[in-house]
Design a protein that fits this description.
By secondary structure, the chain is an alpha+beta fold. The protein is built from four helices and four strands; from the N terminus they run E-E-H-H-E-E-H-H.
Length: 152
């Protein structure tokens, strides 16, 4: 485990400008001190082996995040592929009666219906480049006009 240069707890990032490995709390103290040090780019350290990851950030306080380097991902992928193959082999049950065709048709219809519902929920409305007209009923003091002037 790589230690924080300031408090000896587990380091989570490396600041090249300060040439220091820091934990989340010490990073917030150091890089929250002023706007110049807040601009330092910090590289996240791998959660498993504490080497550099491709993830970097800057700002006064980074949100605690878990990152994994490419080496650890590649070494874990072989294990995960074996687990995936074993799961597929145990999940594959055979259909003796041949009812799969009806189930497949139902699932296709429901998938299409789901897709239509999603499209309806995610409609894009183009913005207008025209300026919003100013209503002459508004007073200069910022008070809203009475909405029931003509209702009496």
């Amino acid at each position: 485990m790589t230690k924080c240069e300031l408090c000896n707890s587990s380091a989570k990032m490396y600041c090249e400008s300060d040439q220091a490995r820091l934990c989340w709390d010490c990073d917030a103290k150091v890089h929250g001190a002023n706007f110049l040090v807040a601009k330092h780019s910090r590289t996240l350290l791998c959660h498993l082996c504490h080497s550099y990851t491709p993830w970097a950030g800057s700002g006064p306080k980074l949100t605690p995040t878990v990152s994994v380097c490419s080496s650890c991902i590649n070494s874990c992928n072989g294990t995960q592929e074996i687990v995936d193959v074993e799961e597929r082999q145990t999940d594959g049950d055979t259909d003796i009666e041949g009812d799969d065709e009806e189930e497949d048709e139902d699932s296709v219809i429901s998938a299409d219906e789901e897709e239509d519902d999603e499209e309806e929920d995610n409609q894009v409305v183009p913005g207008s480049s025209m300026p919003v007209p100013v209503d002459s009923d508004f007073s200069s003091s910022g008070d809203c006009p009475d909405s029931d002037e003509g209702a009496s």
